[in-house]
Amino acid sequence: MHCLMVSCSALLPSHCVIPVRLWPKFLLPQPKYVLVLCSYAELIADWPVVVLGVCTVLIVVCALVGVLVPDLPDFSDPLLVSASDTGGKCLVSTGDSYSRLVFSSAEGKNLWNTQAIKSMCSCLLCSVQVRSHRDYWSLCQRTNDASCCPSWTLGNYIAVLTNQTSCQKITDRDVSHTLKILRSCAKYYHNGTLGPDCWDMALRRKDRKCANVPRKCTKYNAVYQILHFLVDKDFLSPKSLNYPPPVLKYSMLFSPTEKGESMMNIYLDNFENWNASDGVTTVTGIEFGIKHDLFQDYLLTDTLYPAIAIVIVLLVMCVYTRSVFITLMTIIAIISSLIVSYFLYRLVFNFEFFPFMNLTALIILVGIGADDAFVLCDVWNYTKFDKPHADLSETVRVTLQHAALSMFVTSFTTAAAFYANYVSNITAIRCFGVYAGTAIIINYILMVTWLPAVVVLHERYLPNVFSCPSSPHHQRAACTRVWAGLCQSAAKCLFTVSEASRIFFEKVLPCIVIRLRYLWLLWFLALTVGGAYVVCVNPKMKLPSLELAEFQVFRSTHPFERYDAEYKKLFMFERVHHGEDLHMPITIIWGVIPVDDGDPLNPKNKGKLILDGTFNIASPAAQLWILNFCQKLRNQSFVFQSEGQDFTSCFIETFKQWMENHDCEEASVYPCCSQSMFPYRQDVFELCMKRAIMELDRTTNYHLDSKTPGPRFDINDTIRAIVLEFQSTYLFTLAYEKMYQFYQEVDAWITEELRSAPTGLSNGWFISSLEFYDLQDSLSSGTLVAMALSVAVAFSVMLLTTMNIIISLYAILSIAGTIFVTVGSLVLLGWELNVLESVTISVAVGLSVDFAVHYGVAYRLAPEPDREGKVVFSLSRMGSAIAMAALTTFVAGAMMMPSTVLAYTQLGTFMMLIMCISWAFATFFFQCMCRCLGPQGSCGQIPLPRCLRLHTLSPPVQDKYQLDSSVKAEHYELEPLASGPKDKPQEPPCNGTPPNNSPYYSTLPTCHYCSCADRPHWPPQTDQDPLYTQYVQCPPTPQHCHQGRTGFPVRKHCSPPANHHPSPVPHISSSQGSQVEAPPSPTSHTHLDNGQCPASAPHPTDTCCKQTDLSSTEGTQRRDRTSPDRPDRGSRTKNKCNSEQNSGEPKPEGSPKHNTSTAPPTETLC
After folding, report:
1. pLDDT at 743
2. Among the listed residues 915, 948, 931, 989, the one whose alpha carbon sits nearest the alpha carbon of residue 800
């Protein structure tokens, strides 16, 4: 079975609305692959139910195994301390463990007034919303069984200090008196002498710092609690003490209920939809410890918005394919892609961690799957129209031959952009990239297996079930008149939209692009430079400013997010708890190999501890070196010099001092006494170190535990590791630059010192509180690497598709401009380079490359030899398709904006921005570069060996779009609008090479003299009528050649003029591709039944009209139901006609013409 390839240019009309993933016109290079494709097409055509059944079984098996075998996904924070973790709760301070609210003034005034203080502890804000809940009694802490503890508020502490029974009874005088006490005691708090234990007399005697604090400042510990927990840090700060009156902007309320999952019902019932203001004060921040639990609930409830976006895409797909069945089966294939991808992700790739970001792959996959479905259905319809008598296997083969490669190119580009994220060090980004990329590949496999079988089933059994009635007879038999009227109204609306889009994309848009090309180039270059300045210079993309446990998951206006982002850093207890204003520790460790053997793709798998077998601290050389190391380290400028004796920083100093202070009077003490000289023998060191640790624990503040520096012992009391810790002069900060400077300075010094260490101490390493710095560093470097890989893949795909370096470079420039402007817009919107943002930026390359790829392919495959003709061709062919794809994705993104989950809103924002900007750059910037400096002929073309060459453009089908034989370039009716005579110089070929497609214009058939008559009734070519069918006006005079460009291939019906005698003309069947000699026609002016054009040739430069096969007679009224007065939509005028083909010598009349070309046969112009 010999499979022939039909030119895609013959199948595609110029203004037909088609999806962005247009199929490139490739011929298959290898006969073996042709045979495989033909066999596969026969399988789908003959056994579509079997193909669907096999796919369904595989999908169901993957779904069952994926759900039943591994554990279901857990979207909770893997690093979050569990509420049932008793040890973890013991490490948390008392104030941090309680639920709390942040208050601010409703009118922006000072909160330090009696009315506002009473409002914060009133029944309206506290009792009604918290205490009145049914679960409060079982959750609150109480001093007895009768009542719960009161809330810790500013008003209650004022009442305690002024001996009032409740905060509702305090007066202005009480408020002023408390302010005086706070003013006088604030200096003791800020210099560190007023601590939390100064109110306890027993502890006060031990702590000498509290001895200098006045008793009024320690009464009930109220002053410390107010300044540390209840007021913001700027209230009575050292800088504002001398500037009365102090301004209190924010105040905290602590509820006597522990934060955690138990507060979920109280929040959902009383706070989720509550107006948190009484006109005096407003609750602006909430911390109930349920942020991540609530996020999991919102992930499910807010799927409504992505669902709306999916429904919109499906509606567009249903209208476009005109089939509910195909639409439903397509969405099943998309969902199945996610299911199969989850099976491969969990069981084949063995990924245990499934971050919530993986759910956002659904939105991206719906857009890609819809576009693939558009491609396959379009190619199917055009193939049927071009080959109406072909069997199903031939139709399937041609459809897959065109569509499969195009879908693979676009799917591979996007999937590669996702897979590029695997280079990141962040687990969530790596997992998301693998899952989304795998889902796109599985979707492609289903689109070439599942969907063709669906289309075959639809063609066999459901061609008219879900479509509008096509004739009055069908209307009466299939549905009511109301339904028929709705269908006709919808068809008219669709026709109006199609006509408007054709005018815009064939006439207006090319005119705007070409006439203003220099203006567009300057404008988009300026936008690119501006975007690069915003991204790289000022204000530039900022690294995340929230800590690991505070990643934003809701909108910025959500009270949980406002507490983490705005208010947490304004209260001293939160700053101290999270390390703010504390010195960065310098921790040096020996005895442990710094290797993480845990699963890098599962944050819950922390691996095992690997000990250093060469470690030995007991040798005299190691003792001496470690002592000198501590002394050198203390003298460095980056080490903070603490006051008093430090027992914890360097244990060897403490141990040496302990040995020297012990006399050897008692025999039981020896050898752990002053008689032993430093460095000690190894056996003495090991024995005395254990004694020293036990005694220091009793006599000093040195308590050795898992968090204390010092030696580490195994179960045999052998020293296996040591830890040294010093405080640096650097303070903890979220600023990346300062942490980078700290790490580089300290690590460089320690690395240099370790080079002189003895063998037992040569494997030491340095660590500090650098978790957040590591995240920032991974985001900044990983994002750039992933983006670079995505650009490289996009360039490779573009180069392999067009085989032209110049077009590929122009496409990359367009993509670079898109990225800079998109990221710059996100920066101006306040985005930070967090985990989700990093993924979206790197994926932007894969999502924006398609537009430039298809424009570039259309430019290279355009039959016109000059730049302007190629640009006009690519715009008219691709413009409406790309705009439709961009608009659909834009609307889908807009539908997700009302969501509460930040991931959905950010994804929606990104989709809207990337679609608008990439469409603008590809349409205006890329096309204008091609118009000004685009390649011609073989400029920039990559030569290939003959055995590897692909015929990039099969000879055009002459009865549809081909030019006259003597014309070198098509002349569009919009060209006078696009440029004037001065803008159209004759552009010579590059390097002496003739224009790209000139061979195709040298084999055109002879143009015979004829004239057009009235339109005939055409027989149907397919079971379904094309959506936008139209007629072409015949030329009014036989002075010019007239060629139609319509939504679908259009035929002209010709009859000879009155004063000429007909002569037989050869005829080529469009369906079979063979030439048949037409019998002589009588000299009459009536229509010919077979649609042939009788002609003679006294004037070889007169009118051209189409020669097609109209032998089919069934359904003669099918084409006639459109408007008979419909004008020509896109005709192209030729300059002249050739009198002869190739040699210019006329053929004898009546002699058959045989096609000797090796290219596929084409239809003939008469």
Report:
1. 94
2. 948
Distance CA 847, CA 911 (A): 9
- 77: helix, coil or strand? coil
Q: Which two tokens stand for residue 319?
A: 């209208």
Cα Rg of the chain, angstroms: 40
**502, two tokens:** 């054709």
User: Is the Cβ–Cβ distance between 675 and 746 less than 8 Å?
Assistant: no
pLDDT, residue 1078, reads: 40
Euclidean distance between CA atoms 537 and 446, whole angstroms: 45
Structure tokens at 871: 């640009």
- DSSP state letter for 23: P
For residue 597, give the 3-state DSSP assignment.
coil
Could you give the C-alpha distances from 100 to 287, 292, 441, in angstroms and in order?
Answer: 5, 17, 48
pLDDT of residue 821: 94
pLDDT of the residue at 1110: 36
> Which positions of the chain have pLDDT values less than 50?
1-31, 80-94, 124-125, 466-472, 474-476, 478-479, 950-1166
Q: What SS3 class is residue 79?
A: coil
Q: Identify whether 1038 is preceded by a cis peptide bond (ω within 30 of 0).
A: no
Question: Of 222, 254, 269, 276, which is closest to residue 140 (Cα–Cα)?
Answer: 254
H/E element, 373:
helix 361-386
Q: pLDDT for 707-759, tens place per residue?
A: 778 888 888 888 999 999 998 999 888 788 889 999 999 999 999 999 999 98
Residue 666 DSSP label: S
Distance of alpha carbon 390 from the chain centroid: 43
Determine the 3-state secondary structure of 626 from DSSP. helix
- Looking at residue 510, its pLDDT comes to 92
- Domains identified in the chain and CATH numbers: 8-68+302-535+777-933 (1.20.1640.10), 98-258 (no CATH), 580-736+750-768 (no CATH), 1003-1166 (no CATH)
Helices (H), 448-516: 450-461, 472-478, 481-503, 509-515
| Structure tokens belonging to residue 1051 | 């035929």
DSSP letter string over 863-920? S-SSHHHHHHHHHHHHHHHHHHHHHHHHHHHHTTTT-SBHHHHHHHHHHHHHHHHHHH
Tell me the β-bridge partners of 285.
Answer: 102
Q: What residues contact 803, with CB distance under 8 A and at least 6 apart?
A: 860, 941, 942, 944, 952
Q: Provide the residue type at 596 as one letter.
A: D
Query: How many Å apart are CA 668 and CA 701, to the nearest integer?
Result: 25
- 26-74 pLDDT, tens per residue? 333 444 555 676 788 888 888 999 999 999 999 999 999 988 887 777 6
DSSP 387-427: -TT--HHHHHHHHHHHHHHHHHHHHHHHHHHHHGGGGSS-H
pLDDT at 296: 81
Note the pTM of the prediction, 2 decimals: 0.66
- Measured in whole angstroms, the distance separating CA 387 from the mean position of its chain's CA atoms is 41
Distance, CA of 579 to CA of 573 (rounded, Å): 10
Contact yes or no for 75/356 (Cβ under 8 A)? yes
Q: Are 903 and 357 in contact (CB under 8 A)?
A: yes
Return mean pLDDT, the chain.
73
Pick from 934, 1121, 915, 1086: nearest CA to 1014:
1086
- Calpha distance 195→191 (Å, rounded): 10
CA distance 847 to 861: 23
